[in-house]
Amino acid sequence: MERFLIPGQKKRSCTSDALTRSPRKKIKLEKDERMKEEKDEVDEDSALAEFSHPVPWQKIEAEGLDCDYALLFAKEEADQLFKQLENEVVYSTGEEAKVQVFGKVYSIPRKQATYGDAGLTYTYSGVTRSACPWTPTLESIRDAVTKTTGQTFNFVLVNRYKDGQDHMGEHRDDEKELDPLCPIASVSLGAARDFIFRHRDARGKHSCRQIEPVKLELAHGSLLLMNPPTNTFWYHSLPVRKKVLLPRINLTFRRIVLASKK
DNA sequence: ACAGCTACAAGGAG
DNA sequence: TCTCCTTGTAGCTG
């Protein structure tokens, strides 16, 4: 099955904060950016002007970064899915929800759960646990992602951020057990949150290069595909946003290669 | 005042 | 042996 990406979309630099703003502002800023760009280069998109319908997929590209973003679920459907997940998903508690950092033990600043095919395991911060069996809602979302992308997944990591205080630090999803050719599909439900990519060579005090971060806002019902080699070169994070008061559930579907062969 | 960002704090895993 | 990962917080900026 092929992917239903619309080819030849406008190539965005995505180096500004434009995508993190409200939709109305976003349109205005995109126009401004486009005008700036047109001073420097020929408009590659004139042939696309005739497409009057909304473009479902947005290509997000930078050096070594390749993502596709789209609204997968309309609001009503996304609302329903969020409610169902709130009832179905059972999150790790107690010791399983703790992590040791710099000698101190903390509760992770979010809730986590892992679901997938029988026998699959997931290692987080040195602790390995096995996936729970798929729930009906997780299965149906997984199938919707597969229909849209043509990719199959055998595992999902569920992260629940109760409000803007809950967050996730900068990291890559480059575990060895992940299929390096399979994109990671990230479905967002609930409160919209900022999502930030940073190139590995542009991090820290002695960063050798100055590469602008790529900032997105992940909307209710959205799907973000992180294609290879994005996770080799780019770290991502979900930063604290104190103004966000409502919960968000994120599902990252992955394909884990079976570690042991018979 | 405060949201947002960076640097940095140890020790274990691979 | 070396590199990378984990989060909270001090300190700075706008």
From TrEMBL:
Residues 1-47 are annotated as: Disordered. GO terms for cellular component: nucleolus; nucleoplasm. Its EC number is 1.14.11.33. It catalyses: a 1,N(2)-etheno-2'-deoxyguanosine in double-stranded DNA + 2-oxoglutarate + O2 + H2O = a 2'-deoxyguanosine in double-stranded DNA + glyoxal + succinate + CO2; a methylated nucleobase within DNA + 2-oxoglutarate + O2 = a nucleobase within DNA + formaldehyde + succinate + CO2; a 1,N(6)-etheno-2'-deoxyadenosine in double-stranded DNA + 2-oxoglutarate + O2 + H2O = a 2'-deoxyadenosine in double-stranded DNA + glyoxal + succinate + CO2; an N(1)-methyl-2'-deoxyadenosine in double-stranded DNA + 2-oxoglutarate + O2 = a 2'-deoxyadenosine in double-stranded DNA + formaldehyde + succinate + CO2 + H(+). The keyword Ribonucleoprotein does not apply. Residues 29-39 have a biased composition (Basic and acidic residues). It is found in: Nucleus, Nucleolus; Nucleus, Nucleoplasm. The keyword Oxidoreductase applies. 2-oxoglutarate binds at residues 159, 161, 171, 236, 248, 252, 254. Its main location: nucleus. GO terms for molecular function: broad specificity oxidative DNA demethylase activity; cytosine C-5 DNA demethylase activity; ferrous iron binding. InterPro entries: AlkB-like (IPR027450), AlkB-like_sf (IPR037151), ALKBH2 (IPR032852), Oxoglu/Fe-dep_dioxygenase_dom (IPR005123). Gene3D superfamilies: Alpha-ketoglutarate-dependent dioxygenase AlkB-like (2.60.120.590). Residues 152-257 form the Fe2OG dioxygenase domain. Substrate binds at residues 102-104, 122-124, 174. Its cofactor is Fe(2+). Keywords: Dioxygenase, DNA damage, DNA repair, Iron, Magnesium, Metal-binding, Nucleus, Oxidoreductase. GO terms for biological process: DNA alkylation repair. Belongs to the alkB family. Interacts with PCNA homotrimer; this interaction is enhanced during the S-phase of the cell cycle. Interacts with nucleolar proteins NCL, UBTF and NPM1. Interacts with XRCC5-XRCC6 heterodimer. This is DNA oxidative demethylase ALKBH2.
